[in-house]
Amino acid sequence: MTPQASTPAYRRLSVEERRVQLLDAALSLFAHRQPEEVSLDDVAERAGVSRPLVYRYFPGGKQQLYEAALRSAADELRLCFDEPREGPLLARLARALDRYLAFVDQHDTGFSALLRGGSVVETSQTTGIVDGVRRAAADHIMRHLDVAEAGPRLRMTVRMWITAVEASSLIWLDEAKQPPVDELRDWLVEQFLAVLTVTARRDPQTAALVEELAADL
Asked: Where are the bilayer-spanning segments (predicted)?
């Protein structure tokens, strides 16, 4: 008798593994389509499971799944700015931007929907998740600046720059990802130093930082 061909053993996923699988499927869809264009059937098909199984893990339906996927993406974005405090500050900032822009490149349409808002699934909850990413990025940058207690002008400058990074990323996507990403990264680093230099004219704390950063050039 011809031996039967062996078939791969089925492995039952744990609750957490299945949840991660569904979130990965949702994120892959939200990355390239507007949230309102993605259905639970789409997520089930991408994950290779049934629609009832998606509901079992996300009984709140699409809204709950979207918010969970958004939190997952937000966690990844927060890590972009989690750079070791070693070496010149501007070089650290460039490495953080490399990771941030790689995320933007990978998630293009989803990133645009995330920051532009206007989605039918946007709520105060989702807005809070996005704002949490901005605040986390500002906190990381403040730690890199090694400022014990930043004054209002310095805090405002850092948060304005983060807003400029977001806006530049969206425009970059609209412009078919031009200029090249390396040029965009360097440009954003230069803008960071430029806005600090402007603030330094009015704020002694920022002026001291600019003097320190000049040594990185």
From this structure: none
